Structure formats: C-alpha cells, structure tokens
Amino acid sequence: MTAVDLEFDQLNSTVDALRRSISNRMMYGVGKDAVTARPHDWLHAAALAVRDRLVARWMKTTRLQYEQDVKRVYYLSMEFLIGRTFTNALLALGIYEPMREALAGLGVDMDMLIDMEPDAALGNGGLGRLAACFLDSMATLGIPGFGYGIRYEYGMFRQQIVNGEQVEAPDYWLRNGNAWEFPRSEIQYLVHFGGRTVQRGEHVEWIDTEHVNAMAYDTVIPGYATSATNTLRLWSARSTEELDLSAFNRGDYRSAVDAKTMSENVSRLLYPDDSTPAGRELRLRQEYFFVSATMQDLIRRYQRTHSTFGRFAEKVAVHLNDTHPVLAIPELMRLLVDVHHVPWATAWKQIQQMFSYTNHTLMPEALETWDVETLARLLPRHLEIIFEINAEFLKHVSEQSGHDAEMIRRISLVDEYGQRRVRMAYLAIVASHKVNGVSKLHSQLMTREIFADFARVFPDRFTNVTNGITPRRWLAQANPSLSSLIDEQIGTHWRRDLFELEKLRELRHDTAFVDAFRNAKRQNKMRLAQLLSHHTKVSFDPDALFDLQVKRIHEYKRQLLNVLHVIVRYNQIRANPELDWVPRVVMFAGKAASAYRMAKTIIRLIGDVSEKVNHDPLIGDRLKVVFVPNYGVSVAELIIPAADLSEQISMAGTEASGTGNMKLALNGALTIGTMDGANIEICDAVGRENIFIFGHTADEVDSLRATGYRPRQIYEENPELRMALDQIRTGFFSPDDPLRFSDIFHTLVDWGDHYMVLADFAAFAEAQKEVDARFRNPQAWAESAIENVAGMGWFSSDRTIGEYAREIWHVKPLDMS
Ligand code: 26Q
After folding, report:
1. What is the pTM of this model?
2. What are the phi and psi torsion angles at 739 (to 5°)?
C-alpha cells in the first residue's frame, strides 16, 4: 500500500469514523433512524459502511488493471461457496475491533449481527468452496482474476433433521437483501436457445431462437492487507419482455406472467444433484446461460482496449472449474467465427492457448456427458461446432502413427455407443493447453486411468496442482483463540505466508506454549459442547476426544466405516464398562443429495445409533454420537476448530483431494485417514508419526478387486464386525422398523461392497486404538497437533494460486505502487 492509501485507510478506520459511517448508512442507505432500526437494519447499515471502504480499493484496482493492460484470468465456476462476508471483510480491512467498538457505542452487539448474516451458499461442497478460497487468494496476491458464475436465488438447501430424516428446506438467502452486491442493470447480454442454423454466404447464422437476458451482479472480493481487490460477477436471468402483452390484453394474466417466470427460472436455484430428466435440461440451460454471458463480457472488455483479436490469448486466460462451464469453448468459437468473422483456424488456435481445465473426480459415472439430441434441440450451432472440433481432432490423431481404430473410437468427443452423447471432459481436454488434477495421486491416476489415451496423445498437457485453503478464513477468522496465540508467538505475517507456521515446530517442547495451545483447543471445544447440549439436550464432556467427520454424505467417503466402528466400540464398552475407555464424542455433519437414497439412509442410521448410544445409562460420557445438522461454511467455521480427530477415510483412489482434511489439520486436529487424495501430501508435510494412516492403498484396492473381493468372508470371520452388521440388519437400532437398514447390510455383505468398507475395517479399528493411546498422553497428543499446524504451509491456497498463475495462466500480480 502507498503512504497516501495508508493514511486514507487509517482515517477511515477509527472508531469515530466507523460510527459516523454506520449512522449515515442507516439514514441514507437503509432509510431508518436508530430508534426504529431492527437488528437486520443494523447489519445492513454496518455492511454498507464496510462496503464503502472496499469500493475505493476496488476502483483503484480496476484502474490499475486497465492502465497496465494486464492479462486477466476468468475463473468460470457453476459454484461459489462464499459463506458469510462481514467478518471476512472486517479482517481484510483491519477494522474488526474498531467496528465492534463503534457498534457497541451505538448500543449494538456485533456478535449478534455476525450470526444474522446468511451464508452465500452458492455451491454443493468442495468444488464450490475451492472456488471461494481461490478468489480470496487471487485478490490477496494481486492476481487480476474475475470469478464468473450464476446468482442463484436459492442456494444450497437448508438441511433439517425431522424424526431422524433429512428434510430439505429452500434457502432463500436474498430475503433481507444483499448488502455486498452491486446490480449492474446496464450490463446485460442476450442468451439464445433453440432455433436452427442457416448458411448465409461465408457465415453461419443461428436464427429463430428464444432468448433471455443475463444481468450482471458484482461483488467485491477484498484481498487481505492489500488494496488489491477482485470481482465476482454473477449472472441473473431477466426476461426479455416484461410481460406477454398479447396474453395480457386477452385478459389471460396468468400466462402473461408465466412466460416471464419460465425464462427467469434459469438462475432460480443451485442444483444439488441431477436426478430427474427435466432437471437435467434446466441444468444444461444454466451452464450455457452463464458461459454465454461471460464470453460476451470477456470479448467486450478485451475490445475496449484492442482493435483486433491478435493479442487475445496474451491478455485473457479462461479457467474451467470442472466441465460444468465447458460450453464456453464452442460459445467462444461461435462468437469469434460467426459474429466477429475470425477465421476458424485462428480462433481455434487462440482458444487452445487461453483455456485450461481442472478435473475434480475420477469416478467415471460422475463425468459429464450430454446427449446429442438435447444439444441439437437447445444449442444446434454449438453441436455443429463440437462435431467440427471432433472431426479435426480425430484427423490429427489418426495422422500420428500407431493409433488404431479402436483408440479413435475411445477418444472421440462423441460416444457413439447406444444413445449418442458428447463427453464434456474430452472437449475440455482437446481445447485446453493445461489440464490438472487436484492432488498428486489424483493427477497420477487421471493420466493412468480415465484420460490415459489423451495423456499419450498430449503428454505435456497434463499436470498437477494440489488444492489449498485460505488461512484467512480457516484459521484467522474461524479460530480466534488459536490464531491470537500464534500471533503472540510468531507475529501476524502467517496470514500472508503460511510457511511462517513452521516456526511453531520448535515450540512443541515449550511447556508454556503447549499449555496455551491445549487451552485454545479446549475453549473451542467448550463453546461447541455448550451449543450442542443446548440443541440436543444431551451433555458433552469437553475433555472427551472430539472426533469429526464433516463432508457431503457419499458412499465413497465411507461414513459407514465410521458408524460401524462406533457400533463396535459401543458393544465393547457395554461388554466391559469397567475398562479405562478414552471418552469420545463422534460427530458427523453433511448433506445428502436429495435423490440419493443410500446417503439419506446413512443419515438415518447415524441418528438411530446416536439415540441408542446417547441414552444408554451404561455408556455415560464414554461415548456420544452427534449428527450436526445443516453443514455449510458457517457451521464448518464453528466445529472445525473444536476437533481433535479428523476422519478422512475414503476408499483410496476415490477422493480427488479433499480440502476439509486441510482445514482440520490447520486447526490442530490429527488425521485418521487412508492414503487417498491430499491425505498423502498431508502425511508428508506433518510427518508419518503425527498422522494415523490405515487401509488399502489405491494399488492394493485394484489388486484386491482383480483377485476377487469377498466381503461376506470378512463378515463371517470377524465376530465384532459381524455383530455390528447383524444389529444393523435386524433392527437393533430401529426396533420400530426392523428392516429400515437391511439395504445397508446387503450392500456391504452381499452386493459387492463397492467401496470396500469391510476390507478396511480391521485396519481402521487398529488405527483407532493408536488414536486412543496417543490421546491418553496429552503431551504427546499436543506435540503431534502442533506438528500438524506447523506443517500446513504448503496447503495455503496462496501457494496453489501461485502455481496456477505461473504454470498455467501465465499471469503476474498487479503492480499496486
Ligand atoms: C453435475 C451435473 C449435474 C448436477 C450437479 C453436478 C455436480 C455438482 C457438483 C457434479 C460435481 C460437483 C462437485 C464436485 C466436488 O465438489 N468435487 C470435490 O472437489 C474438491 C475440490 O477439488 C475435492 O477436494 C474433492 O475431493 C472432490 O470430491
């Protein structure tokens, strides 16, 4: 920051200045006075006062980007899981404490305001949260990055647990307005659907379409302790006509409004799954809607300072967060070739230099494909372009020697088998100069398995960039007790350079520090225990081992492995209550896709097990089981700092990276995990003796499957496991409905146990014994926990974004001086 900026900031950061701003914003922004203001009005006024302080930085950044004619990164993502903004912005500006005082001076409790802000939950899970961490890091590093996505009116559903079952409630997060966004009614683009194509002279035209407007909403993304900011631009659908006037004039008011409503549905809600065919078509419309608006916006911004497309690829990088925005490729081809009359070959060359793609899953069933018929009906011109790209690609490959017809069939962008489908990941690979996985293992398996043919054709295209998380939100903001302790010891610079945490390693034998470290954890556990007791009417011992598995509910993540172990432990305690058990609170949290039956049954099982365990007088504080409802960014910020143990127990080879694993280790939890995703790199970083690794490796999973895996044999040979599974099968936990969980039993024992829960059970139980043993020795546990925190430098999303910027996007930070 320059001296002038600093002085300006300091003047604006005093308690007095803030109090004046809030009062002003209450009057002129909200239109109320302090006497009639409700709590929501105070939140809004305070948020506007904060936003005002961001805008000056935002304008400056935008002006510098323009003057320096920088290369810009367009980060395209269907999901941005931002969470709350208020505290994040206060910390970025360095006005957290002054704001608390200013509000107190106005008679307002800041903590109450903080809790009232709804999460911007515009994402499902890891992929969406990663995008949010990346925005934070790009701004902090001064990388000129723009997030582009959809302004869903309804975000991720709110999860309620009613009689043990997940019930989804709509998340209308905009109910009380959104102080952080700027509607840009002057920035609108037409997005077309349907129609047909005709050849007019040398050019193709797309005609007879229906259309909808995409209107921009901008949110400022502050960098931490820098005047650099970035922009998240989200598109909202606006009908092209207010009303169908002819219907209106006929007196048919309903249908006059219906057409408008229908076309605006495109940005109505976030897709939590893709289970119904009608839903799938709307999903495709969403994908095209946002990339079309984004590509038009990108061209317009480029053309403001350039008269030809000659330097397009020098000035623009487009990144695809998974395949969901992949239609950006044919859309940009269409705009360049059909609208701006750039020759096909020139346009294609530019695109290949501009685009890059991140893959987030190895599971073949999760790879996106769209059937040719739907594409032909909704996006006829794009289908033609995809066919043309495919023809050229296949020609190129067959000209290289040694590629047989079988291989050509396998790598075709169009799957010709049965119903013809376009493979979106293949389109992304062919159009991108770099394709990356999200952890070392994932990137290796990607080129060995799902994209093996492409890795042979384009050996230099594939690379790895291991995921990361922002230390600002996931340590400084979520865990004030630990972060203030760290500040006392090593200063505050770790927020911008997480490798600084290495300095904590040498403090692990310093008893005063270890005591303070344990005390910080205990405070977080007490806060959580109180909250949970309040909601469940069950008491929780803050000195018990807090064991957390928090993530989407999915069979591959193996919440069932965890539950089975809980049941076995419960039976053991009942059999030997006199033994010296390490008390545990096992917590689960996570949402199930609304149509994912098995995932919902797993939630039910956790609920039923916790009912039984928590109310068994023989058990007492030795074991408690909790399902924490409505997991999301804000719940994560509350419970992750309170964890002792982090469960990262997916079947090896299935979790692309995981990022919750990083958040938990950064907050001083020890990991019990498989050699999967980023767990492997976490193991390297914190040291093998400070993590509990168990189970089959990815290679061992493959060979077990190849030699014939027989889960029933394991069931028959392990009496403790058999008892637990029989209890599940016979209704021990669900006496009112004994068959409730019989599918779980059969999935594991008779139907192949696809995710090898039983194969890893014994090793998991052994590793849990080691966990208990370590926890009995508080000093040893604390030392390992400190080693975990100290080793997390590599997992800052600043490191991740640095790699993307250097190796993939070829962009440099803005010069802020
Ligand atoms: C696709 C089509 C239709 C409807 C929905 C979807 C859809 C939506 C979300 C498909 C996938 C997702 C999300 C995937 C995801 O979150 N993957 C996770 O990405 C993280 C960040 O890289 C990794 O850490 C996790 O391992 C990975 O599971």
Report:
1. 0.97
2. -90, 5
CA 633 to chain centre: 9
Question: Closest Cα partner for 226 from 422, 64, 389?
Answer: 64
pLDDT digits (tens, 9 = 90+) for 614-672: 999 999 999 999 999 999 999 999 999 999 999 999 999 999 999 999 999 999 999 99
CA 474-480-481 angle, 5° bins: 125
* pLDDT above 90 for 262: no
Label the pairing between strands 670-673 and 645-648: parallel
pLDDT exceeds 90 at position 404: no
The helix or strand, by DSSP H or E, that contains position 217, with its residue range, turns out to be: strand 210-222
Q: Token match 């409630």: residue?
A: 169
Q: How far is CA 27 from CA 41, 108, 607, in A?
A: 10, 16, 48
171 pLDDT above the threshold of 80: yes
Residue 769 annotated as catalytic:
no
pLDDT of 453-478, one tens digit each?
999 999 999 999 999 999 999 999 99
Residue from 156, 282, 361, 755 whose mutation best tests the ligand 1 pocket (most atoms within 8 A of CB): 361
Residue 366 confidence class, pLDDT cut points 50, 70, 90: confident
Is residue 360 annotated as a catalytic residue, yes or no? yes
- 3-class SS of residue 549: strand
- What is the band of 241 on the pLDDT scale with cuts at 50, 70, 90? confident
* Residue in 698, 662, 754, 125 with CA at minimum distance from that of residue 443: 698
Three-state SS annotation for 699-735: HHHHHHHHHCCCHHHHHHHCHHHHHHHHHHHHCCCCC
Calpha distance 152→100 (Å, rounded): 31
Arithmetic mean of pLDDT over the chain: 95
Which residue has the CA at smallest separation from atom 9 of ligand 1? 124
Q: Which two tokens stand for residue 353?
A: 């230099």
Is 659 near ligand 1, meaning CB less than 6 Å away?
Answer: yes
Helix-then-strand count for the chain, H and E = 34, 24
Region 244-267: what's the mean pLDDT? 80
Up-side HSE of residue 477: CA atoms within 13 Å toward CB? 26
| CA 184 – CA 235 distance, rounded (Å) | 10
Phi then psi for residue 168, to 5 deg, are: -90, 130
**Ligand 1 pocket test target in 127, 134, 436 with most atoms within 8 Å of CB:** 127
Instruction: Answer whether 658 contacts ligand 1 (Cβ < 6 A).
Output: yes
How far is residue 341's CA from residue 310's CA, in Å, rounded to a whole number? 13
The pLDDT confidence band at residue 246, using thresholds 50, 70 and 90, is confident
Task: Please give the backbone phi and psi of residue 591, each rounded to the nearest 5 degrees, phi first.
Answer: -100, 150
Phi, psi (degrees; rounded to nearest 5) at 459: -60, -30
Q: Is 671 in a helix, a strand, or coil?
A: strand
pLDDT (tens digit per residue) in 760-792 = 999 999 999 999 999 999 999 999 999 999 999
Report yes or no: 189 and 293 within 8 Å, Cβ to Cβ. yes
DSSP secondary structure of 263-324: HHGGGTB--S---SHHHHHHHHHHHHHHHHHHHHHHHHHHHHH-SSGGGHHHHEEEEEESST
Instruction: State how far the Cα of 420 lies from the Cα of 414, in Å rounded to an integer.
Output: 7
| 467 CB near ligand 1 (under 6 Å) | yes
Condensed to tens digits (0 to 9), the pLDDT of residues 526-548 reads: 999 999 999 999 999 999 999 99
Q: For 339, which DSSP code?
A: I
Q: Which atom of ligand 1 is nearest to the CA of 358?
A: 22
What mean pLDDT comes out for the span 698-726? 98
Cβ atoms of 585 and 541 closer than 8 Å: yes
User: If we measure between CA atoms, which residue out of 703, 705, 715 comes closest to residue 761?
Assistant: 715
CB 393 within 8 A of CB 429: no
Q: Which of 659, 671, 674, 800 is catalytic?
A: 659
